[in-house]
Known about the structure:
Distance between the termini: 40 Å
Oligomer: single chain
Structural class: alpha/beta
Radius of gyration: 19 Å
Strand order of the largest sheet: 1-2-10-9-8-7-5-6-4-3
Amino acid sequence: MAESYVDANPVRQHGIGPQAEIRVELMGRASLRMRIAYAALRAVARPVVDQFFTLAEHGALQGNPAFRLANYAELLATPLVPPRGTRRRSVTFEEFPAEWLWHRDGPGPDAVDHGAILYFHGGAFTAGGLISHRRLAARIARAGGVALLNTGYRQLPRGHLLDSIDDAVTAYRYLLDRGFRRIVCAGDSAGGGLAFAAALAARDRGLPMPAGIAALAPFADFDSTARAAHPNNIRDAVLSAHALSVPARVGFARDGRIDPLWSPVHHDFTGMPPTLIQVSNTEVLLADAEALAARCAAAGVPLTLQIWDNAIHVFQAGADVLPEARAAIADVGRFIRDILRSDATDPIGRKP
């Protein structure tokens, strides 16, 4: 796999603000395995995903029946087991389940001085959960060298986006109450967007800020206008702008209106912590990543934006077979270790 390099002119090429805090890394050419995965998913997965969300919009399963069906997709992940050496401990909140994940050779959830990762799974706020994302989350926990709280926040149809954010903040308060002073919020896809929403909510509610954010292909804009106009709308192997518009338009917009403030991309990022975003150059959520990067730039928030070649959505979950996935998780781990252990990073006890 080729070495990554820093884009000399991210402003012109990616439409990101001119501030020097933004580091854009264009990763090396996709491996043969990744190119095969992209082609296979483009032919098989995208038509299925598009059809499902079309049915959820105005088909026989319109609305909540479709979202309930998507919830059951979690059961298909039951055969997946966490990597060898992973330890687990369940945590039950009033509205949602969670679990601690850590490696037997690393600090556990009682080692509060080491810090922790607060993880939010993806699934377009309709699918996914602790089971489906346990293997990926456990790999990130081991790479980061600390315990990770995997959070099964409420989704459609049981909960609105605002409930998801409340659950994220509840899990964050739980870590603070246990004595964790350094916490990295992380997540993939919908969970990546939720990591930003949780940090913004913590700031607005007067809580200490997390030490960092690590987001994999974050879904952070509930208005699909920018995604629909993005060239990746026809290139993405799995998702389309239309598919990503349905949870908000059909599920969240109960009064027919999407509140712009639901989307992290419409917030001022003043006081937000150092951030890592990983995204593919072919996926439609590159539009969201670029918008988040612009917000970071405008607020002077340190950001590393890694753009991976021809990668499938949340390719990091394919670490068993994809070399890029293993490399990306290693980069996430290095980011987390640097954030949690660097004397240069303000402790979480500060407020913005």
